[in-house]
Amino acid sequence: MAINIEAMRAKLNASKTGGKPSGSKSSMWKPKAGDQHVRILPTQDGDPFREFHFHYNVGKNPGIYCSKRNDGGECPICDFASKLWRDGVENDDQNLKNEAKKLFARKRYYSPVLVRGAEDEGVKIWAYGKTAYETLLGYVLDPDYGDITDPQTGTDIKLTYTLASGPGAFPKTSLQPRRRPSVLCDDAIADCQDLLDSVPNIDSLFEVKTVEEVQAMLDGYLSSDSSAEDSSTETQMYQKKTGEDVDKAFAAFMSEE
Ligand SMILES: [Zn+2]
Fold first, then answer.
1. How does the average pLDDT of the chain come out, rounded?
2. Which of 73, 117, 160, 234 has its CB 3.0 to 4.6 Å from that of 174, i.e. a possible disulfide?
3. pLDDT tens digits for 95-110?
4. CB neighbours (10 Å) of residue 146?
5. Predicted local distance difference test score (pLDDT) of residue 15
6. Ligand 1 centre distance from Cα of residue 221 (Å)
7. CA of 217 to the centre of ligand 1 (A)
8. Residue 19 class from Cβ within 10 Å (0-12 exposed, 13-18 middle, 19+ buried)?
9. Which residue from 176, 197, 207, 203 is spatially nearest to 110, judged by alpha carbons?
10. DSSP-assigned letters across all residues of 42-83
11. Spatial distance between the Cα atoms of 156 and 49, rounded to a whole number of angstroms
12. Separation CA 226–CA 235 (nearest Å)
């Protein structure tokens, strides 16, 4: 029997990527500029519109999963930002308040989607913001649409993505359900049950750092000079300190309360 070249290619890729099958390494999906159609899939827990909290703006780190807001655990960044906020309020210092706001955890929303025209790539996870979240929930609660994720009677969504128009602007996501409901998939696309079974557990997608790791990221950010350039002197004072100094500084002003 002739060798199966595709299987060999997959094995080589798996080997190069540390043994994980290719394709499982990134299930995240980002819309492209312009129009695309997606179908949101139902999840085992009955909630396909999941909300998670992350800290952005902590130096060059990507969003940091907030154990406090997500799971009721500990989060050094939340603690630091709260202290900074209180200090800003007590001293009527807008710069401190702004710095605190930058560090507060922000919500991000996640849904499993099948991207029309790319069904063979399987189920992807789409991350989106509050406006899209509220729009989607609005459709679900609107009797004209109902459960848009139902595999038989749900509705595809037209997603129009507009890139940020310039510095300081944000990209825009507009959503419009298709006029008619449709099935999630027919035999020409995939086995529908296989697709539903392949919807990942969204909770398992995020890297949860330890308290020590998060503290180290915060300390690294606070001690970097570049982050202090456009801040007030008082903010710089905190930012230029090492983690230990920051603890002392806050212990000092906490005791003043
Ligand atoms: Zn946090």
1. 84
2. 160
3. 999 999 999 999 999 9
4. 15
5. 63
6. 15
7. 12
8. exposed
9. 203
10. P-TTS--SEEEEEE--STT--PEE-HHHHHS---HHHHHHHH
11. 15
12. 13
| 191 CA to centre of ligand 1 in angstroms | 40
Rg (CA), the chain: 23
Cβ partners under 8 Å of residue 198, min gap 6: 122, 123
Say whether pLDDT at 234 is over 90: no
Give CA 229 to chain center in angstroms.
28
CA of 40 to the centre of ligand 1 (A): 28
Centre of ligand 1 to C-alpha 73, Å, is 9
d(CA 151, CA 111): 15
Angle at CA 169, nearest 5°, toward 166 and 170? Answer: 120
Q: pTM higher than 0.85 for the full model? A: no
Which pair of structure tokens corresponds to residue 213?
Answer: 């790791």
Angstrom distance (rounded) from CA 195 to CA 184: 9
Identity at 108, one-letter amino acid code: R
Q: Tell how far the Cα of 111 is from the centroid of ligand 1, in angstroms.
A: 22
The answer to whether the CB of 53 falls within 8 A of the CB of 110 is no
Distance 46 CA to ligand 1 centre (A): 26
In angstroms, the CA 87 to CA 99 distance is 11
What DSSP line would sit under 118-184, residue for residue?
-GGG--EEEEE-HHHHHHHHHHHHSTTT--TT-TTT---EEEEEE---STT---EEEEEE-SS---S
Q: What is the 208 CA–ligand 1 centroid distance (Å)?
A: 12
